[in-house]
UniProtKB/TrEMBL annotation:
This is Glycine/D-amino acid oxidase. Signal peptide: none annotated. GO terms for molecular function: oxidoreductase activity. GO terms for biological process: mitochondrial respiratory chain complex I assembly. It comes from Pontivivens marinum. Keywords: Membrane, Oxidoreductase, Transmembrane, Transmembrane helix. Residues 6-369 form the FAD dependent oxidoreductase domain. Pfam families: DAO (PF01266). InterPro entries: FAD-dep_OxRdtase, FAD/NAD-bd_sf. It comes from the Bacteria. GO terms for cellular component: cytoplasm.
Length: 400
């Protein structure tokens, strides 16, 4: 390990490792890269505990484009990340997303979002209740007005497979990984010059990247900076049902989509089982070590899903866990790019549950910033830190 690196990345899960890969894969970048990760097991990382899905159904063009690049990248991931003849398999299940609307307001949002999505070339359709019922016969459509369905380009995949693929490829291309904890930073004027580790070592740096997930604010404060990111808990439940509706769809080879009910509860098939979650009724910041699932949410999910489909009336809980969103309290969107004054401190934070699916585009974008001083392929400047200082949210209406 060197005493100084051109780029030091704090956080080695999916975002940090994506940045490392895109840097080392860029022929115009010839610098050294160090990723510092405090927990080599990633047991409580947002990456490991994520439901790991990807969609193109967003309300902002840039988020649609981020999703589209992510889909393309995930489809080709095995070939891209091949090392010594071994190709990682993400088991991408392209089941699509199905957003359901029961109120005038919800339906109008779907219509407005659909215009944006189609303008960007997303393969999304709007369906009336009869069309919903024809495609997915198990769904109760009596109270529904509209649905938005991603016919391709959306689905779910292996979360750890994505992270480990990035990590293995980045290391094979020369990135260094260090298991340690960053405890401080040294600033000289408007530059971070080094990071201090729990082990007592000091590592010099040309650029620092904050990829520390829900702990992003802690990392930023080490450089005397602020970022509106905090840990918010999300509980996930896996259940079996006596009469599964999987295979009953008349579209997409019988595969069911990830269905988002108007209530906020969602579910998707996981082999012979189903995975489900919901939007918490109360959503406070939580302690860094609080991973106890909110068990009362399962009763609400069950009621919502049973109302939506008789297939979900008789179900049995099989597994559950909780993970943390790196929640951007300003606008639920990623903050990516340099601080306005400390220009060699780069944020890649506040994904609010979208980190895995957005890691290809954000990793590529951060690598371009470092290599060229600006974005080259997809302009992510709307997602920069400037909006935080101005207190101007970059609103995304399609948030789950």
């Amino acid at each position: 390990m060197n005493k100084s690196y051109d780029v030091v990345i704090i956080g080695g899960a999916v975002i940090g490792s994506a940045v490392a890969y895109f840097l080392k894969n860029n022929p115009d970048f010839d610098g050294s890269v160090l990723i510092i990760e405090k927990d080599p097991t990633f047991a409580t990382a947002s990456t490991s505990l994520s439901s790991s899905a990807i969609r193109n159904q967003f309300s902002n063009p840039v988020n649609v484009k981020i999703g589209q690049f992510g889909t393309q990248f995930i489809r080709e991931f095995g070939d891209i990340m091949e090392v010594d003849g071994e190709k990682p398999e993400l088991n991408f299940h392209e089941g699509g997303y199905l957003f359901l609307a029961s109120t005038d307001e919800q339906a109008q949002i779907l219509r407005e979002n659909h215009v944006v999505q189609r303008e960007q070339g997303a393969d999304v359709v709007l369906w009336n209740p009869d069309q919903i019922k024809e495609a997915f016969p198990h769904i109760n459509v009596e109270d529904l007005q509209l649905a938005s369905y991603g016919q391709s380009g959306e689905g779910w995949f292996s979360n750890t497979g994505l992270m480990n693929g990035y990590r293995k490829k980045a290391r094979a291309m020369g990135a260094d990984y260090l298991i340690d904890t960053v405890t401080g930073m040294t600033r000289e004027g408007n530059r971070v010059t080094s990071v201090t580790l729990q082990s007592g070592e000091e590592i010099g740096c040309g650029t620092v990247i904050n990829a520390s997930g829900p702990r992003a604010a802690v990392t930023a404060r080490m450089a005397g900076l602020d970022i509106p990111v905090e840990p918010r808990k999300r509980s996930l439940f896996v259940f079996d049902c006596a009469q599964t509706p999987e295979g009953s769809a008349t579209v997409n080879g019988g595969k069911l989509p990830l269905m988002i009910d108007p209530s906020g509860s969602f579910c998707r098939p996981e082999g012979s089982l189903f995975l489900a979650g919901t939007v918490p009724e109360e959503d406070p910041a939580v302690d860094w070590d609080d991973f106890e699932p909110r068990h009362d949410e399962f009763e609400r999910i069950w009621m919502d899903l049973a109302t939506r489909s008789s297939s979900f009336e008789a179900i049995k809980l099989k597994n559950f866990w909780a993970g943390h969103y790196a929640f951007n309290t300003l606008d639920h969107n990623v903050i990516v790019g340099p601080h306005t004054e400390v220009r060699n401190f780069i944020f890649a934070n506040g994904f609010s549950g979208h980190g895995l699916q957005q890691s290809p585009a954000i990793g590529r974008g951060v690598a371009e910033l470092i290599t060229y001083g600006g974005f080259r392929t997809l302009d992510l400047s709307q997602l920069g830190y400037e909006r935080v200082l101005a207190g101007e949210p970059f609103t995304e209406k399609a948030v789950i």
